[in-house]
């Protein structure tokens, strides 16, 4: 079984779309564990704030199989792939980690982990001691050194 991490984001009907995505992911993947919900400003365009969640899970699917399932969930939730990369969206599901695999063709580990706190923070919450396969630092160490200018006003919505 592979250990995977998925990042979910939405800035349209956020609660409804995140809830539906979470239910769909729980139906396909095993041992799902969810981060808290993080709120961040839209990046690269003017739009409503995003809600983001990180998910750790296990699967017997290949990398391509996981990506295919995530695309199907996005399609079922109204994702319009014709829109520009930086635009409002009903749902965005990104495979960010697949075990310790480094695979440029699938963008693994996802480069956004090192660019955006709304990707790194849920990952550091769920897997603080896991080591990034290229950076050779834990996700908590990476979080501690992340440039605060890249935080985009992240807020935790459901604090414990």
Description:
Helices cover 29% and strands 22% of the residues. It is an alpha+beta fold and 160 residues long. The protein has one domain: Alpha-Beta Plaits (2-Layer Sandwich). Strands 1, 2, 3, 4, 5 and 6 form a six-stranded antiparallel sheet that branches. 32% of the residues are buried.
The SSE order reads EHEEEHEHHE
Number of domains: 1
- Runs in which pLDDT lies below 50 for 5 or more consecutive residues are none
CATH structural class: Alpha Beta
CATH fold-level assignment: Alpha-Beta Plaits
CA radius of gyration is 15 Å
Instruction: Tell me the helix content.
Output: 25-40%
The total of helices stands at: 4
Give the overall average pLDDT: 90
Strand content: 15-25%
Tell me the total number of β-strands. 6
CATH superfamily: 7,8-Dihydro-6-hydroxymethylpterin-pyrophosphokinase HPPK
Instruction: Based on the coordinates given, report the CATH architecture.
Output: 2-Layer Sandwich
Q: Termini, distance in Å?
A: 30 Å
- Main pleated sheet: 6 strands, antiparallel
Shape by Cα distribution: globular
Q: Given the helix and strand composition, which structural class is it?
A: alpha+beta
């Amino acid at each position: 079984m592979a250990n995977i991490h998925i990042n979910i984001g939405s800035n349209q009907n956020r609660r409804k779309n995140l809830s539906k995505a979470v239910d769909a992911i729980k139906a396909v993947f095993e041992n799902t564990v969810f981060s808290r919900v993080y709120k961040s400003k839209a990046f690269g365009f003017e739009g409503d704030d995003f809600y983001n969640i990180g998910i750790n899970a296990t699967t017997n699917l290949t990398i391509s199989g996981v990506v295919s399932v995530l695309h199907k969930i996005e399609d079922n939730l109204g994702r319009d792939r014709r829109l520009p990369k930086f635009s409002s969206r009903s749902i965005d599901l990104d495979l960010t980690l697949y075990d310790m695999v480094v695979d440029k063709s699938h963008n693994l580990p996802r480069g956004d982990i090192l660019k955006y706190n709304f990707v790194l923070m849920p990952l550091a919450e769920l897997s603080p001691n896991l080591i990034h396969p290229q950076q050779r630092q834990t996700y908590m160490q990476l979080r501690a050194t992340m440039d605060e200018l890249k935080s985009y006003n992240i807020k935790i919505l459901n604090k414990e």
